[in-house]
Amino acid sequence: MKHITPARLGELEPLLAELRRFDSLREKKRGVFYRKSRAFLHFHEDASGLFADVRLGASDFDRFRVSTRAECAALLREIERALEAGGRANDSQS
User: Which of 6, 13, 82, 91 has the greatest CB tally within 10 Å of its CB?
Assistant: First the structure.
């Protein structure tokens, strides 16, 4: 599985816009988000679709398929839960 190309990343622009609303995340490169100084989320692609690798816990990345709106919404819910559990405020609900 390879890192996502810029063209395919464009397909995820609505998801990227939502991710940019979280105060505790910083987009260091388009589609690559950090939480504090640690990599938090990035994207991959292959023939079966688009995927996000996200660090929801303290250790490794979890992979989520993000090829549909429903899959993107599910990822956002998981990220919101993880950030709230970590005590990080965000403005996605403002």
Answer: 82
